[in-house]
């Protein structure tokens, strides 16, 4: 056996141990996180909008204001994680968001709903970019897109399983504890975050050098490999924190992520409503549970595509087109979904959009780590995520406002497609990494 083959076997063994230890738990955390973020999309058409008297515009505003609170604290939260460690900081985030998510079950009116959604964003700030940063502490650059994909598979899985679970809770929980079905759903889905915070405190390990579940040789190998990569990135690009928070390239990457997330949240918040609309458009008659199961289909397909596409990107070491092509696919497919002649063709188009969004997500996060490290990575990744997630406010609000203004979903979905195509063109123009300089 050659020395290269031996080194590859050592690397694969260590990274497999890391993946088995960390990825299932991180996926579980993100599953709960994403479900608490978007379950308002299931509550809306299943009693909440009627009970609270919400128009499509107000529903979109309540869905999206989460991201204004999220934006306000994203960067300082990620810098705190970099300083204090992922274990403690993620546990703190989870307790606060779990409390607010549970309180959603008791909202008396639209104003309180808007306030709690804003506070939920404040509470969750730093969770997602914190995990992305945390993965850079454990996985070398060549394997990072696949690791991010395994983690982010929780998004389509949460949307798929979450659609069914949320629908089941709404249908079966109506009247329990004197609560409407959608209130019971908020109550049940908010509690796991609080419970998992305690598990996070004891289960996660901040750095490879502290991992008692690796052997001493494995800890040394992984720590030295990641330190060497960090030194190389620093020597090649040398971006300080201030540059990572102000450089036009970071702002452009934030726009690319805005486009990806715009498609993701437009689907997440309005797909249940769109499928409900099939009843009028195509004459279908779906129960709450059936709507949840149909909603799950695009995300199941998207989850499979996400893992396969990111693995291909890692093998080829190509990043730009692995982001741009899925964005172009999603951008073209989503606006035509409601113009097709039957619900089956419409679901094919929606599924293609889900494939595009899900496939672009993990490889995108390999782009900033090509040239950021240390505190610059913590700040830059958080800034990209926070600015990009403005789309979480814009997508549901604009889509809802356009539906109120025009009486249909068509215009809003054309906007989704245009934003995704613009993001694809932007990432093509940027290339994978900046030229090596310290300007």
Automatic annotation (TrEMBL):
GO terms for molecular function: transmembrane transporter activity. This is Putative tartrate transporter. It is found in: Cell membrane. The chain crosses the membrane at residues 18-35, 55-73, 89-108, 114-135, 147-170, 182-204, 250-271, 291-309, 321-340, 346-367, 374-399, 411-433. Component of the tartrate utilization system and may allow entry of tartrate and tartrate dehydrogenase. It holds the Pfam family MFS_1. Residues 22-435 form the Major facilitator superfamily (MFS) profile domain. Its main location: membrane. It is a multi-pass membrane protein. Keywords: Membrane, Transmembrane, Transmembrane helix, Transport. GO terms for cellular component: plasma membrane. PROSITE patterns: MFS (PS50850). It comes from Saccharopolyspora thermophila. Signal peptide: none annotated. InterPro entries: MFS, MFS_dom, MFS_trans_sf.
């Amino acid at each position: 056996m050659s020395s290269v083959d031996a080194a590859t076997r050592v690397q694969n063994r260590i990274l497999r141990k890391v993946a088995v230890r960390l990825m299932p738990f991180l996926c579980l955390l993100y599953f709960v996180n994403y479900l608490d973020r978007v379950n308002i999309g299931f509550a809306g058409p299943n009693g909440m909008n009627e009970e609270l008297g919400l128009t499509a515009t107000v529903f979109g505003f309540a869905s999206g204001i989460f991201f204004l609170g999220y934006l306000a604290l994203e960067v300082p939260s990620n810098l705190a994680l970099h300083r204090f460690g992922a274990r403690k900081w993620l546990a703190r985030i989870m307790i606060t968001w779990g409390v607010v998510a549970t309180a959603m079950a008791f909202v008396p009116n639209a104003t309180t709903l808007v306030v709690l959604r804003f506070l939920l964003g404040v509470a969750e700030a730093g969770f997602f970019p914190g995990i992305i940063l945390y993965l850079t502490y454990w996985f070398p650059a060549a394997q990072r897109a696949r690791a991010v994909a395994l983690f982010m598979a929780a998004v389509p899985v949460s949307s798929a399983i979450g659609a069914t679970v949320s629908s089941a809770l709404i249908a079966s929980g109506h009247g329990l504890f004197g609560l409407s079905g959608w209130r019971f759903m908020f109550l049940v889905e908010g509690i796991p975050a609080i419970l998992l915070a305690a598990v996070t405190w004891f289960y996660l390990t901040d750095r490879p050098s502290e991992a008692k579940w690796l052997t001493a040789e494995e800890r040394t190998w992984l720590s030295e490999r990641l330190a060497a990569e960090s030194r190389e990135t620093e020597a090649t690009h040398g971006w300080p924190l201030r540059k990572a928070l102000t450089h036009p390239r970071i702002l452009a990457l934030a726009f690319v992520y805005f486009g990806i997330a715009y498609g993701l949240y437009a689907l997440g918040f309005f797909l249940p409503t769109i499928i409900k609309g099939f009843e009028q458009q195509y004459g279908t008659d779906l129960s709450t549970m059936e709507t949840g199961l149909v909603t799950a289909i695009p995300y199941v397909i998207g989850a499979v595509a996400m893992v396969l596409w990111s693995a291909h990107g890692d093998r080829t070491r190509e990043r730009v087109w692995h982001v741009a092509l899925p964005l172009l696919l999603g951008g073209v497919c989503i606006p035509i979904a409601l113009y097709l002649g039957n619900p089956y063709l419409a679901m094919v188009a929606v599924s293609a959009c889900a494939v595009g969004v899900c496939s672009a997500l993990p490889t995108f996060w390999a782009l900033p780590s090509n040239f950021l490290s240390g505190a610059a990575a913590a700040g830059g990744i958080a800034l990209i995520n926070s600015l990009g997630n403005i789309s979480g406010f814009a997508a549901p609000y604009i889509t809802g406002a356009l539906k109120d203004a025009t009486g249909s979903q068509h215009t809003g979905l054309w906007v989704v497609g245009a934003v995704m195509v613009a993001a694809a063109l932007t990432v093509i123009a940027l290339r994978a990494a900046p030229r090596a300089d310290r300007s």
